[in-house]
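Sanity check

After download, print the first record. It should look like this:
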Amino acid sequence: MKKTIVVLASAVIALAVYISMRRPATYHVERSIDIQTWAAIVFEQARDQRAWGAWSPWNEHDVAVTIIESRPRSQVKQRVEFKEPFALVADASLGLTPTGPGATHVTWSVDGRINLFGRAFASVTETDKVLGKDSRMGSQI
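Expected structure tokens:
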């Protein structure tokens, strides 16, 4: 029995070391899209949390969002605190670059740190794909 516990404990430790070395402790996901809307309109929609119900994919999750930086017609940065499926804090940004009359290049990004449990999850999924689906927010404004 004692040998079994030692073997299992060794396997768990080896797995934790493998995961911590294989997956980085941070992540960055970014997507871009060109939309036919003025940068000022996109900025106001991104800054107005009451308007998010129409376009934010994070409304589907149990999250708290705080705007931490806002630069008129160019960028809105948010701190996003996910509660489900596990606690996670990330910084999201919506960057806006006018590309012509009534046209804007929108770059959505999210950055954060991943604990060991999150890195284990990321070992069987791709963080970029899981979080990248949320980039649809830029196209729905």
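If your output differs, re-run the checksum step. Summary of this record's structure: The chain has one domain: 25-140.
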